[in-house]
């Protein structure tokens, strides 16, 4: 990784770059200096880059510049000052863009012109209208470079610009390190793979060494999530057998990253090939296309629910560790297709295909799903998540609040469109005297807040309800557009869940477990008595 610093004349590239490199204790280079070295080696003559340009002419000088860029591109972990005109060349830009951060220095052109005048001699002053020429060149450089600059810094004032440079680059690296494919701070889970690729999987990092770890524990949770397990799920038949590739030795964690892979065995892409130029309503096809300019049309690629197999593999481990600490995480179908559960018996959840804690409601939910399927449609529903045994004190104000982190993790599931803690939206219709969870005898008398106050767990049950949308893949004809924006009709074929609610339940539990375990590990660094 290298840091490229560029900008118009007199923006301070060399001064700021050299001082920042000194403070960071890394090397500093200038492409102008590399050009001078190249010329000196070949001609046994020391000239500065202005003199080289004047002696050789523009075309020959640019060839030296390209060679200097090639040498600079091979450097690593350093700061390189590059002239603005260099980055206006597409080939040079491509070479320097690889494995680098490009920092553009900008300033008010009046200020830059004053700096240039105070400096004295410059090729700009040989022009008929030097100031106009300077402004024109500076504007062109900024307009050309700004679109692909990673960091832009205003250096109009001279107040510790090297410090501003270091701070801005540090902030950029901090953002860069937070991959959108990774969840967690101490316990980190990074998923990979696509629906119709060779495999999906996860890398779980941050677990302490010596924890008992077996494929069987993970497999039992994956079996709850896998497709083809009942009449109300997709007929795609995946065994979802997990393979542990690293991080485990003789049944115990080694403290190193644990890589797990689940191969895709029963993918059928033929139904997707005929609609690859169309955006499926309700799916992420359109947004992925707009964001990346490319998308995997086979099964939705990365946006497919198939990706969640990796989450369950890592979440199974978190659930087991939390279980040993007395925490129980249970999700169930509270409503499907307008059919609501009216009782709660935990033993009934895994005894019916819709995973409802009310066996009478479960039968009606199952029938509602089959009716929707028969009509070429799908259903959504509500999942209820109950977490018991979590100690008070988990969660960090203000941006690391437990409810905020749980919400973020659960909203990362593509099918989740709404979420509430405790009384949720009913709180908006309550009086303070009704909603407040009053205390007596060192205990709460109610739990309207859902087990979280001020973003920190209270020690009560954590209660969450999630709204899950209907599966977007339905066999009814719908209106859409193609990648050129032309109106089209689409009818989706293939194998799809008529209702995703029953299969999302183990995923919901896994995401909650990963967040809770991570928050617990963070808290133990603050106070080991929890």
From TrEMBL:
Q: Which residues bind substrate?
A: 32, 62, 84
Q: Which CDD domains match?
A: Chorismate_synthase
Cross-referenced HAMAP family, in alphabetical order?
Answer: Chorismate_synth, Shikimate_kinase
Q: Which domain of life is it from?
A: Bacteria
The organism's lineage is:
Bacteria, Pseudomonadati, Planctomycetota, Phycisphaerae, Sedimentisphaerales
Q: What does this protein do?
A: Catalyzes the specific phosphorylation of the 3-hydroxyl group of shikimic acid using ATP as a cosubstrate. This reaction introduces a second double bond into the aromatic ring system.
Task: Name where it's found.
Answer: Cytoplasm
The positions annotated for binding FMN are 302-304, 454, 469-473, 495
A GO biological-process term: chorismate biosynthetic process
Q: Which cofactor does it need?
A: FMNH2; Mg(2+)
Specify which residues bind ATP according to the UniProt entry for this protein. Answer: 10-15, 127
Annotated stretches, region: Disordered:
219-239
Q: Which Pfam families match?
A: Chorismate_synt (PF01264), SKI (PF01202)
Question: Matching Gene3D superfamilies, A to Z?
Answer: Chorismate synthase AroC, P-loop containing nucleotide triphosphate hydrolases
Subunit field text: Homotetramer.
Which residues are noted in the entry as NADP(+)-binding? 225
Supply one GO molecular-function term. Answer: ATP binding
Name-wise, this protein is Multifunctional fusion protein
GO CC term, one of those recorded: cytosol
Please give the coiled-coil regions recorded for this protein. none
Reaction catalysis annotation: shikimate + ATP = 3-phosphoshikimate + ADP + H(+); 5-O-(1-carboxyvinyl)-3-phosphoshikimate = chorismate + phosphate
Cofactor note text: Reduced FMN (FMNH(2)).
Give the metabolic or biological pathway: Metabolic intermediate biosynthesis; chorismate biosynthesis; chorismate from D-erythrose 4-phosphate and phosphoenolpyruvate: step 7/7; Metabolic intermediate biosynthesis; chorismate biosynthesis; chorismate from D-erythrose 4-phosphate and phosphoenolpyruvate: step 5/7
Which EC number(s) does the record attach to this protein? Answer: 4.2.3.5, 2.7.1.71
Keywords attached to this Swiss-Prot or TrEMBL record, sorted alphabetically, are:
Amino-acid biosynthesis, Aromatic amino acid biosynthesis, ATP-binding, Cytoplasm, FAD, Flavoprotein, FMN, Kinase, Lyase, Magnesium, Metal-binding, NADP, Nucleotide-binding, Transferase
